[in-house]
Amino acid sequence: MSLPIRRRRWFTVCALTASAALVAIPPSTASGRGGAAPFGVRTLGQLAKARHQSAGAESPRVQADDDDGNEADEIAEGADQYAEARTSPGVVAPGAYGAAWSGLQGLPQTGGKWRHVTGLRYDSDDPRYRDIDSNSSGGSGDVTGRMAALAADDDGYVYAGSAGGGVWRSRTGGGHWQPISDRLPAQSTGALALDGAGRLWLGTGEATTNSDAYLGSGVYVLAHPHHGTFSPRRRVGGDELESITIHELRFGGGKVWAATSEGVWSHSTKRLSGPWKLEFAPNPDFLPKGSKADDPDAPYKNIANDIAIDPKDPSKVVLAVGWRSGDDYNGFYTEVNGAWTRITSGLGDLPADADNVGNVTFARSADGSRYYAIDQSPEQLGTNPDSGLEGIYVSKSGSPTGPWTKIADYKGLAADNSALTTAGYMPGVQAWYNQFLAVDPSDAQHLYAGLEEVYETKDGGSTWSTVGPYWNFPFSCWSIDPSRQTGDCHQTTHSDQHGVAIGRFHGRSYVYVGNDGGVYKRPVEGSQDASGHATDWTSLNDGTIDTLQYYSVGIGRDLDHGGLSVTGGLQDNGQSVLRGDDKVMGSDFGGDGGDTLTDPANGCDIAQEYVYLAVQVTQNCAVNDGSWATDPNKATSYGVAPPDNATSEARFIAPLATDLKDGNTWIAGGRHIWVQTHGYAIRSGAQWTSVHDFGTGRVATAVAASGGKIYAAWCGPCNNQGFARGIAVGNADGTGWHDISLPVEGTVPNRYLSGFAVDPKNAGHVFLAVNGFSRHWTEGPGAGVGHVFESTDGGTTWKDISANLPDVPADSVLVTANGGLAVATDLGVVLRAPGHTKWERVGRLPAVAVLQLKAGPDGGMLYAATHGRGIQAIRLRDLD
């Protein structure tokens, strides 16, 4: 019996902010160590092989990448692309998002109220969906979007900071969540911390250096976190920490210390006004206003990861500084005679050389007797396909200066009943992205460590248990039998750990972990089975917290249950499906969900895109009891990727659309424009036909069609090194293809073209959404102005209709049923009413990115795929 393929996407680039400047950190251009590929992950073929070996039978229908080379270059490129859409053709100056948010607040507001469609539990192990491309039964249970940071106290209050959906509070030891940061101009969390006075500190700007991590607007304090919400008025200091990410907040000596993407800063914890002090930046010339601030490598040059403060002497501080892919400044620093100096010796086993100090996390025991650290190695990242982890260490002196002793490496962790034991994907392969450490307050030798999995040691590191394995698929206890859920396996957590906290509820201590699937908890003194796997994890993603990060949304009529079927593709949480009578959402496709096609007349006809146009199709919502594992003919999902998928000649999240007049005609964009006319009955990638070739190095960024007329936008190169873009127009039968003349200094800016909307009444009438920022913020050739453009002659000429629309990246555009025009932006949705020329803000959403808009089957509802607050819907008739 084989196991379903877990479709994954690994993120590697810091992308943008909901309140300030957008900064890209593409690994392919990182300086200092030659821009080596960040890591070598296991290919999909290796994943399938590993599952085949663990299950003892051959998979009947494995859709896998046959490339046996290093997949790191592909993943790095894919991660770049989210940022490229917003930064190219140049570097974006600080203040861009702040100005955009202020501008949107000043727009008139429509009537109507957004309805939270996905505000209920999302069961990733829903037994209805056990088809070949699902991860159901992996053991993660109820999930939500990526959780970047956690904090908890001894009164049962838990605080969860999400990647893009703000901060949430539970008063019941987890669950029954309430959002508490919706008024802030940034909904991305970098750090959460409770100080000795019980105040909750929030550092905005997620610091995982991944492709959809948003920068922040600074640090905020909630004086009484059991009550109230964060306010912009409670920002600490001035604007010094805008437009950056914050990895950690640490306290000592009357100060709060912040490890940021622009060095280490400090501020008094008593007097919250006054500016932050820059304690140390290894390359100050690359900071804003520095002589090299516009250098493409500037985002890499001052990255700080953590601060360790000696509990016995707060004047002794160690800074962990360095870019994960390597740079000459990487290392540990301490203050000597008033100057920050690199520590070159005396650390014991903890490396001191730049090649082996990357992303670092510290944790100290409550009694001050132990300090612990995780270290990710740039050298390992670039040379070891199995792992980037250098090790886990302890300082038994309690001093952050050591000496340090190594207590774990990736091979040892893999041997402790890890789910990651296959060459090419072992513990710490993403140590640059997922790390946490926490010490049991009552036992200095009891430590929790998070990488891709959760590990626990009760003896200071002499022995370890994998208490939260990556998933249950490799273990003998696993079963695809839906009556047994995951067989005899216990629930685990979602993979990819980011945040941790230990708190008490009703007199019992719990450890809380945050990861790509949300928040989970178990007793600190929890139970384990014979393999060392925890038996008592509880998912806290109870449906009252929705931080799901959607890329797309699809809506169709539910013919079996009435009402509508709503689906959407997600960051690392597959595709969700919500049927007409559902009380719980299920997951019918696994991994990362890209674009989504859904038949408006039948919501179980679905095409879901993974990366690089790896398209799967189902005609029954992928409902399956897992019987395909023994009878291949019972599989109801089919891989139908266009040929550009095999050559990776497509965007990581590539455009996919149906013809407005013919739902059986699909258009997919890679290097080529692909057309297929079988609709949801397609069963093979060979059924696509290439109707246009953009040429080597060019890939589609947006496609749309009506009545056989196709509009296709492309970029190539797509980064700021010679960025180019264009539009081609032609017919679905392959005739009439031609390029539109778009000069660099022409009406349409030389920026990323992100979406088309064709007038249903006239195929020659089309609208275009343009991402990025105008020339006011973008220091690149031809950045121009404007975000929405209109053509009435089939794309030959264009008119800027942005009018009063603020300068904010536009992600997609939609012609509404009544002839209005709706635009999804990085900060919400705007509407131009029929017959009007000015824009209004649609309802009230927090400062969350909206990546796609779709209309319901009858055109009366507008659905928004937000990247942090789930799927939202609003009635068009209420917008007047």
What are the salient characteristics of this protein?
880 residues; mainly beta; five-stranded mixed β-sheet; four-stranded antiparallel β-sheet; 6 helices; 60 strands; globular; disordered N terminus
Mean pLDDT: 89
Q: Based on DSSP secondary structure assignment, what is the total number of beta strands?
A: 60
The stretches of 5 or more residues where confidence is low (pLDDT under 50) are 1-78
Assembly type of the chains comes to: single chain
Distance between the termini: 56 Å
What spatial form do the alpha-carbon principal axes imply? globular
Strand order of the largest sheet: 4-36-35-34-33
Number of helices: 6
Rg value: 26 Å
Q: Major β-sheet, in short?
A: 5 strands, mixed
| SSE class | mainly beta
- Fraction of helical residues: under 10%
Strand residue content: 25-35%
Task: Characterize the structure shown.
- This protein has 880 residues and is mainly beta.
- 6% of the residues lie in helices and 34% in strands.
- A hairpin with a 3-residue loop joins strand 26 and strand 27 (454-457).
- 64% of the residues are buried.
Short description:
With 880 residues, the protein is mostly beta strands.
Give the arrangement of secondary structure elements.
Elements: E1 14-17, H1 44-55, H2 72-87, E2 91-92, H3 96-105, E3 115-116, E4 122-123, E5 147-152, E6 158-162, E7 167-170, E8 178-179, E9 189-194, E10 200-204, E11 213-215, E12 219-222, E13 246-252, E14 255-260, E15 263-268, E16 277-280, E17 304-309, E18 317-321, E19 331-336, E20 339-342, E21 360-364, E22 371-376, H4 378-383, E23 389-395, E24 404-408, H5 410-414, E25 436-439, E26 447-450, E27 454-457, E28 465-468, E29 497-505, E30 508-515, E31 518-523, E32 538-539, E33 554-557, E34 564-569, E35 575-578, E36 585-589, E37 596-599, E38 602-609, E39 615-618, E40 637-639, H6 644-647, E41 656-659, E42 662-669, E43 672-676, E44 689-693, E45 699-706, E46 709-715, E47 725-731, E48 738-740, E49 753-759, E50 762-770, E51 778-779, E52 788-791, E53 799-800, E54 810-815, E55 821-825, E56 828-832, E57 840-841, E58 850-855, E59 861-866, E60 871-875
Parallel strand pairs: 1-11, 4-36
Antiparallel strand pairs: 2-51, 3-60, 5-6, 6-7, 7-8, 9-10, 10-12, 13-14, 14-15, 15-16, 17-18, 18-19, 19-20, 21-22, 22-23, 23-24, 25-26, 26-27, 27-28, 29-30, 30-31, 31-32, 33-34, 34-35, 35-36, 37-38, 38-39, 39-40, 41-42, 42-43, 43-44, 45-46, 46-47, 47-48, 49-50, 50-52, 52-53, 54-55, 55-56, 56-57, ...
